[in-house]
Write a structure and sequence with these properties.
alpha/beta, six-stranded parallel beta sheet, five-stranded mixed beta sheet, 18 helices
């Protein structure tokens, strides 16, 4: 008599999960036939995957009363579309806001909403990351799909990566199915210094590892085992993760990191937004800041977004002043902080001092000027003592097991360089145009509404002349240019160039390019997970 089971007669009992995320199986007495119940055991050895979102991708709420920044849907996002520069300055400051963990989480998954919230899913924008979190959770924990899941498919499907393109092997896929990959999310105060957010990420890593090591997965099963995590980052989240891993010393608690569309050396679009507002379609621009006044009111006192400015690694010459055939490019000495960011009073400088604090309503000119001076001093101190050191510390600093993808595509141009252009004969050296004052017939606050123009006085005739900011000029993802997106490649074990757009890069519903990016991420996670072989405690004796 054969002892082999006829698998066609199996009744698969899918696992359910209680409010703590513990798997349970429910069944009833089988009918009087030769069918049998088949249960796929949930692994008790854990490799948590933590998604770290980009700038503006974490939900925030005020410590006291005020407006929350919660990106649950387009409707909640558009609540910020009508906010003035004063309202933004009032609420969108790092010392005012904290992470809001009560955002939208799914209610139609096997895992209960309570467990998803415990994992941090409510901390990040459901509008941007909800589908990605679900996709990762389902395809990293598809127990019983060893033969037909997406991981098995990646044994046959090439993705066209520039680095590390080899297909997954049978052994790699088989080992990955011996582990559970619970997907967590980490929301952080994106207005604050990314070094502070990195410290919070380190604490979260410690908490997650401790949580799984202290709990039982199910009754009668041994305690779970968990030693390290895998990080998946979007945009600015990559800078937070790199600082956590390489500067704060958390590398030994991280198996590896997968970066998506990371502005590794910065993005010139930040300069453009502080001078002309957010580029892009209506709605997105209004939410993030439609003009220089709205953007500067927030970014001038928000270290996190300012750390997205081009660093010295980005290179010289990305800001250009053009007058006729003449051109001057900055920075020239590898010092964007001194040559651009803290230049005061110049119409082309990064920060217009009169736009820093729209809450300054002093009527007395002397008192008003004193407040402007204090605001400028605080801003320059942030640039020189927070932004520059952060750039220096993460320069060329990557986890040794890094995988990354970028959207360096001509289909989605981004600002590689930003140019101020005046048509016609220059008539004067560019340096003299750079020293020209703004035309006096409009104040700076009115200029900030002109969507990328500055009218200055001719150096000799004093006739008003207009300079216009350029359009995006470099292949990219619509936000991060190729030069910054491609920068991690020499440090990567896997690297993919794919024509994704920046915001929906991880959205499985955003089209073939985003699907390819997600498959690359899945493959990278499986490959990184092979590092469990380095730990006798995490490996199985029969493998």
């Amino acid at each position: 008599m054969s002892n082999e089971l006829d698998m066609s007669k199996a009744r698969v009992i899918e696992p359910e999960f209680d409010h703590r995320g513990t798997p349970i199986w429910r069944s009833v007495l089988s009918p009087p036939d030769d069918t049998f119940a088949l249960v796929y055991v949930i692994p008790t050895r854990i490799i948590p995957v933590i998604v770290v979102p980009g700038v503006m991708g974490s939900n925030l709420k005020p410590k006291d009363k005020g407006e929350s920044w919660r990106m649950d849907s387009k409707l909640t996002a558009l609540s910020w579309a009508t906010k003035s520069a004063k309202q933004r300055k009032t609420f969108l400051r790092p010392e005012v806001m904290v992470v809001d963990d009560d955002g939208k989480v799914p209610t139609d998954m096997k895992l209960p909403a309570e467990e998803l919230k415990r994992r941090g899913w409510g901390e990040i924008a459901a509008m941007s990351y909800g589908s990605a979190l679900r996709w990762l959770e389902e395809h990293l924990n598809d127990f019983g799909s060893y033969q037909n899941g997406l991981r098995a498919q990646l044994r046959r499907e090439a993705l066209g990566a520039q680095v590390g393109e080899q297909l997954l092997s049978e052994d790699e896929v088989r080992l990955s199915y011996r582990y559970r990959f619970p997907v967590h999310a980490f929301g952080y105060n994106w207005l604050d210094d990314n070094a502070q957010s990195a410290q919070a990420l380190g604490r979260r890593i410690d908490e997650i590892i401790e949580r799984y090591n202290q709990r039982e997965m199910s009754h009668g099963c041994p305690l779970a085992r968990c030693e390290k995590v895998i990080l998946v980052t979007h945009s600015m989240g990559g800078l937070v993760a790199r600082y956590c891993s390489e500067v704060l010393g958390y590398r030994d608690k991280i198996y590896g990191i997968v970066h998506g569309v990371m502005p590794a050396t910065g993005a010139a679009a930040v300069y453009r937004r502080m001078k002309a507002g957010t580029e892009g379609p209506w709605g997105v621009a209004q939410v993030l800041g439609a003009d220089a006044a709205e953007v500067t009111a927030v970014l001038s006192s928000a270290p996190g977004p300012l750390q997205l400015l081009p660093s010295p690694e980005y290179g010289n010459g990305w800001l250009r002043i053009r007058a006729g055939a003449q051109e001057l490019a900055l920075p020239q000495q590898g010092d964007p902080y001194g040559e651009i960011y803290t230049v005061r009073g110049a119409w082309w400088g990064l920060c217009d001092e009169e736009l820093i604090n729209p809450l300054n309503e002093e009527k007395d000119p002397r008192m008003r000027r004193q407040q402007v001076d204090r605001d400028w001093e605080t801003y320059t101190k942030t640039i020189l003592e927070v932004i520059a050191p952060f750039h220096q510390k993460i320069a060329a600093a990557y986890h040794p097991h890094t995988h990354a993808f970028c959207g360096a595509s001509p289909e989605h141009k981004a600002y590689g360089t930003v140019s101020w252009q005046r048509s016609g004969d220059a008539g004067e050296p560019v340096q003299r145009w750079m020293q020209s004052p703004l035309a006096p017939r409009m104040g700076l606050r009115e200029y900030s509404k002109t969507q990328g123009t500055r009218t200055v006085l001719h150096p000799r005739s004093r006739i008003p002349v207009t300079f216009t900011i350029s359009d995006p000029d470099e292949a990219g993802d619509g936000t991060v240019p190729a030069r910054s997106g491609l920068a991690p490649q020499p440090h990567c074990q896997g690297f993919l160039r794919v024509p994704v757009e920046h915001e929906p890069a991880f959205n499985p519903d955003a089209g073939p390019a985003s699907r390819q990016a997600l498959l690359f991420t899945l493959r990278a996670i499986v490959r990184i997970a092979q590092r469990v072989r380095e730990s006798a405690r995490m490996m199985y004796e029969d493998f």
